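Hey, can you fold this one?
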Amino acid sequence: MLSTFVASRLATRNVHYGWVVAAVTFLTMLVMAGAMGAPGVFIVPLEREFGWSSAQISSALAVRFALFGLMGPFAAAFMNYFGLRRVVLVALAVVLGGLIGSMFMTQFWQLVLLWGVVIGLGTGLTAMVLGATVATRWFSQRRGLVVGLLSASTATGQLVFMPLLASLTEHHGWRLGLSFICCAMAVAAVAVVMLLRDRPADMALPAYGETAVAPAPAGAASLLAMLISPWKVLREVSGSWTFWVLFMTFFVCGASTNGLVQTHFISLCGDYGLLATSAAGILAMMGIFDFFGTVGSGWLSDRFDNRWLLFWYYGLRGVALMMLPFTDFTVWGLSLFAVLYGLDWIATVPPTVKLVAQTFGSERANIVFGWVFAGHQLGAAFAAYGAGLTKTLLASYVPAFFMAGMLCVLASLIALSIPVLRKRLATG
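Sure. Predicted structure:
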């Protein structure tokens, strides 16, 4: 296989193959982020072509966000049972099928089925659980940095896709924009087939930072046991205050990022006279700053108290969101917002993953994080539909942005209630 050849060549240069796995994972999460973020560009064109209201379109996106998150714990179990490569390929195929099918939709129920159910389930098979799984399996050291890099793929997806999608949609229609996303997903699928491997043991390698090759754990006894395992893990951790704090704060994270800004920011700017391409450019600027902010957060999470990192990230995000309506949507005002908000868009992920691994152990980390991420996407669904409803009923998105800002401030305070661990795991 190509992966064996690449691994041997890298070994002569003292480069661990885990970095190749991380790169392929980055690409996969990047195109998934493009698929998740694309509907934010298409809301207005769909309103014009089909006459659907913002609340209707947002309800389909809310279904997608909810399924995207609820699949997280089971995606982790699927990865443990079937392996990373198989699950990722199935996810790419499902999302690709949903996108292609949506080019031919004419009825609202088809939007809900394709963009809500099919794409929600497909993207949920990977989500951020994929990044957490790769980081915990392939890296004993630099884990926080790897989580930061993989989390930043969401921002990079925004940077790469959103302005181009907005331009293609404006000049050639939303279907051509979807075609571009489909091509990118096909490229990612080829990279997964050629280079992605499930565990370091598959390559007879130790995890990065280790000296001994750890054998792969025995698989689940049956498919039924695999499906039950996420519920079993949830029951085991449901008595932990730390779990519920991380779940609640990640609910706010999803509500204030994917569900609100990623979905409705372009439409919000349109209400103030900005073209979709200009608004997408602001999102791209956020993506640039978020890339550095999230990678920096991964570096910080390896060195500082992650509770205080969450306090600052949520607090600054709340201030930025409540400041947005006062920018007058000028270039200078929106640029300032893009910097403040962009720096911590996904910066909450590395400290959250670290706290999960430190509290619940690396073996259960991906499933526990899957449940925490379910909270993230339930928050995204809440905000996606809620903001669309305020637009339909009040003709304004502003109340939704104020509410999200206040929730962020509350989350920053709750994060400090996480108990201090007396003994941190060496691999955390």
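Residues 423-428 have pLDDT under 50 and may be disordered. Let me know if you want another pass with a different chain boundary.
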